Amino acid sequence: xxxxxxxxxxxxxxxVHGGTTRSGFGETSEALFLTxxxxxxxxxxxxxxxxxxxxxxxxxxxxxxxxxxxxxRMCELEGAEAARATASGMAAVNSAIMSCxxxxxxxxxxxxxxxxxxxxxxQILPRYGVxxxxxxxxxxxxxxxxxxPNTKAAFLESxxxxxxxxxxxxxxxxxxxxxxxxxxxDNVFATAIWQAPLTLGADVxxxxxxxxxxxxxxxxxxxxxxxxxxIEEEFHDMYKHTGPAMSPFNAWVLLKGLETLPLRVExxxxxxxxxxxxxxxxxxxxxxxxxxxxxxxxxxLVQKQMRGGSTMLAFDLSGGKEAAFKFSNxxxxxxxxxxxxxxxSLITHPATTTHQSVAxxxxxELGITDHTLRLSVGLEDPEDLLDDVRQALASI
Length: 396
Hints:
This protein is of the alpha/beta class. The protein folds into two domains: 11-256, Aspartate Aminotransferase, domain 2, CATH 3.40.640; 261-395, Alpha-Beta Complex (Aspartate Aminotransferase, domain 1), CATH 3.90.1150. It contains 15 helices and twelve strands. β2 (106-110), α5 and β3 form a beta-alpha-beta unit. α1 packs antiparallel against α3 and α1 (11-17) runs antiparallel to α10 (248-259). The model has no long low-confidence stretch (mean pLDDT 96).
């Protein structure tokens, strides 16, 4: 028994009921199907299922009832036709990119990317004969200049990790589509609550479900969403044969996370805005970057393509690395961790953690200095978090 799809449902309703398939027991909570394989009624039925004449599951490496519920629920939220869930966010990034390019193709991406994403583009793609160009993603003229006749795909984060640059998704999509390429957008920092890349022209949207979708630090996961034709004809075979599959248990955990996603993101975003304002008033802080503030470098674009700010913010402390470390160590509620999107507020020093593998010159070009900190705001009481930030500022 499958829950019917209602396109007019609001996101919060879709995230509780979307994609649910119930067994004959009529369970309230989604069932967890911890199985590797499936039994066929006959050899003829097995043959029919393998050649696609008979619907049903074959092997959980590429299809599982619990994972399918997670994929369908994400499709309803995102407005996508199809999706495949992966074992991690980076598995989603890698498999999406590799499904778009072949030897001899050209690929474009902004310089402002998570360190592992840059590694794929700068180190892995060249091994397979794919050339790439890294640009300033906020400069549309650079996107235009980078285009070649053999440009097959582009990838971007918006907002970016960790400096929260916002890139014009619609403008980039128009440029990439002009040569028949596909645009892949990592929507993690905005979340599906505040930004809908497919409506802005993106062809593929990816998430590290490890972040806000789980939201409680429990498991890894990722997902790739797009149109049905691309998922089935370009993506699925690579996914099936290379095996970046999501665990059914993780899919079940993520289904539970989706039920509270809007509540968590809205609360975290509200608190993040208050902390950004507090930091902006401090003489110990030389720069605050938050998409909800009027002084954000792309404030007009934020208003155009995002429905809200972010649970994330970045800021620079006067006093260099020593001040950044002292501030981080002085925090009592906020924890030191390189993860984000958690119920717990988390802070990290990108230059020595998430972007440590990026050359210093490249980091500085992106605005990631020794005194830059990235804060992921959690679900603690807002006043407690503000007090924690105040006392940490006082310590430096």
